[in-house]
Amino acid sequence: MFDLDALRQAQRVVARHMPPTPQYRWPGLCALTGCEVWLKHENHTPIGAFKVRGGLVLLDELQRGAGLPGKIVTATRGNHGQSIPYAACRLGVPVTVYVPRGNSVEKNAAMSGWGAELIEFGDDFEESRLESARVAEAEGALAVPPFHSALVRGVATYALELFEALADLDAVYVPIGMGSGVCGVILARDLLGLDTEVIGVVSANAAAMARSVEAGKIVATDSANTFADGMACRVPMQAPFAIVRDGAARVVEVEEQDIAEAMRLLYRHTHNVAEGAGAAAFAALMRERERQAGRKIGVILTGGNIDADVLQTVLGGGVPGLGGDAARRESVQAVAG
């Protein structure tokens, strides 16, 4: 998809807009897991999530190549939809973003704040994505899919930062939505010639990628009903599926209760807010802590963009989408287990 020189060029593009994000070793997380945990803080970017890197590199590639389009149309659950207008609108390129009905109120506001025209369509991301592609073709606009070589090259710069700082990691846990982040980590690892295991993470309620890897072919699910909206994918794309299938050690499924508890633990031990997808990697490490005991592990905190009312529910001991006391009981049982 790209070579190491192209990845380093992308790193220079990203560096014009933001410093490298830190990776910190938090003692509390190490004590919880029994291993040396390094948390990569992609919540510390200008949009609060790793996706900003992809938008910057995509617009740079367009500007240096075929030229800037008259308009961009894309679809998202939130962070991709901030990345594209963040990069494009400052260059005078209008952006229309499609989101499903009931999407995050605060992510919607952030997308509009960066200059996007926001349109609600469909009941889930897949319906929004298909509509955005149809409208882009009808209007002669540039359709930006959720997975694109420039986007992957951009987000892979966080993996380059991590691996250049910590080349001896035994494993890295990465959440999977449409796959740009995990594929960026796999490709950066391979370009640097490292032996680090890359472990993908999905919500058990949105397990299409896990099902696909297990089956050896694309398997769609009927729904992707997870409060971790950054992982709410029910139809994997072929390109990221192939990279994950060939390059990931495994794909771990985590329950909604696992994700909520990981958000609480990350807040207690680092005082960082993680959105659902941002906490999923640590949730998976907690599930596999006996397997990883004594090893040196990277965990990607991909973003911290979560609505205040959802965060309040989580920090209060609940699980969004589950009923109050029952959710708290299930959360306690999950931690005890």
What would your notes on this structure say?
- This protein is 48% helix and 14% strand.
- By secondary structure, it is α/β, with parallel strands linked by helices.
- It has two domains: 4-50 and 149-336, Rossmann fold, CATH 3.40.50.1100; 52-144, 3-Layer(aba) Sandwich (Rossmann fold).
- The strands form two sheets. The chain has a six-stranded mixed sheet, with helices on both faces. A four-stranded parallel sheet has the order 5-4-3-6, sandwiched between helices.
- Strand 7 (171-175), helix 8 (180-192) and strand 8 (197-203) form a beta-alpha-beta unit.
- Helix 3 (52-64) crosses helix 7 and helix 8 crosses helix 10.
- The chain is globular and about 55 Å long.
- The chain starts with a helix and ends with a helix.
- 55% of the residues are buried.
